[in-house]
Amino acid sequence: MNPDSNTLQGNTPHKAGSEPPYAQPKKKPESKPFKDDSKPKIMADKATSNSPSNEKQVGKPLSNGEQAGKPLSNEKQKPSEDCNQVDYVVMIDAGSTGSRVHVYEFNTCKSPPVLLSEKFEMLKPGLSSFDTDTKGAAASLDPLLKTAMETVPKDKQGCTPVSVKATAGLRLLGKEKSDNILKEIRSHLENDYPFAVVEGDGISILDGSLEGVFAWVTANYLLGNIGNEEKVPTAAVFDLGGGSTQIVFEPEFGNNEKMVEGEHKYDFTFGDHKFTLYQFSHLGYGLMQARNKINSLIVKAALQNNKELKNSKINNKDAAKDAKATISINNPCIPPGVTAENVQVDISDDEIYLVNFKGPSVASGAQCRFLAEQVLNKDAECTQKPCSFNGVHQPSLTKTIRKNQDMYVFSFFYDRTNPLGFPSSFTVEELSDLAKVVCNGDQLWKEVLLDDHVKQLNEEPQWCLDLSFITAMLHTGYDIPLHRELRTAKTIDNNELGWCLGASLPLLDKSNGNWKCRIKETTNA
């Protein structure tokens, strides 16, 4: 099946000469380019030339309360004849399961800028898999940087910012190891590539709150929900990575209610409109971490009566790399007749087991969902009610989001549904039904699914576990009703969803000091 078959199509306001899907009646655009010129802009300064003498610096990423740019008029905007400024941004997403490069091309004659194109490539494994091999981690990005070199015109490379943002995988590796990897990557970029490396936090671990907010900006920018003269409803965003998961939405409260203060509250301005978002990044609840949590429960239970398993303990991850599992354990999250071989289960940094998980003779999807709900820690103390899971405060999704308001789930949400022929919109109940089919095993697969879909399941024996956790998190964790419709996609108008586009927009602002063009040094070389 075509992996992009769930790509949403339609005109976004960020393509030249097109209308947003939520277009309002056209009004005459305001002549003032920004509400407050003292705040950082998301657009590049059109007056900046490519000459070294006119080099300007670019702004830092959105901070809490800062302005992100001018609203996009709903009128079709065309660049003036004397302005054809095109700028590029190279953003590398160093995720827990792999790294991805996004090369964005913008027309910066307008505000917000018009996204003209995006080049996307990805590779595995993630930076965290290199552990103490810092040079290997830096070199692993070379194929992605080659794509950037081939995409950005040579005369633009010196004034194209490059940023590398790592997420939960590197965050979980620990500060010393992650700092060493990021330091080596910065050195590699500065010494071996012509791009302008963003200073400060340009090569860093992305804060979990910004990861979610930038993903929200990306989705709503591409949908045409932000950047308009009139404020329109925005989409809620749920992003599931390998190491963490994010939720971001704009809640609407009653007359006598407001957002509870705390780190979950994020205020900022985009164009003429202020937004108060609820955001939270649940570290350790990405899909790969959730797998490990659930499998750890099964291994811990088996350790009570299995001496052979106890004696197989591995004391460090390096020793586990080349080891092979010799012990098999029944796992209710594996379908009947299926075996997941050589699964590494990390109880702690110095207690690791390598096992083969076997499916029971009879499907046990309900038991798997029980384990998935258990790791969500739904019974944790809730000091600021209401809470989602693990004791984290969250406004009720049923009370603060309109029934017709879009809720987008992407990344692993998409990767675990689309390959099985699932549509781009579905209810939580339909997702639960899919999990039941997958957990039932090969006999039902062949009756319900197409051959290509069965092949996918045969190649990934832990698909039942994944869908059980995803369903439990959405329904039990976030308290989304079974009848609620969700939307999923990998791209919108062929532009990747995720945090990268939202994080790239601020780098087009050449009024602050996060990067400088490298034209002088490359010219003199």
The CATH architecture name of the largest domain reads 2-Layer Sandwich
Helix coverage percent of residues? 25-40%
Number of individual domains: 2
Helix/strand/pairing category: alpha/beta
Question: Can you identify the CATH superfamily of the largest domain?
Answer: Exopolyphosphatase. Domain 2
CATH class wording of the largest domain = Alpha Beta
Q: What spatial order of strands do you see in the largest sheet?
A: 9-10-8-7-14-16-15
Whole-angstrom Rg: 24 Å
The biggest beta sheet reads:
7 strands, mixed
- Tally the helices: what do you get? 18
Low-confidence parts? 1-79, 521-525
> Please, what is the average pLDDT?
84
Using the coordinates shown, work out and report the CATH topology of the largest domain: Nucleotidyltransferase, domain 5
Pfam family, one: GDA1_CD39
Pathway: Protein modification
Membrane topology: Single-pass type II membrane protein
Enzyme class: hydrolase
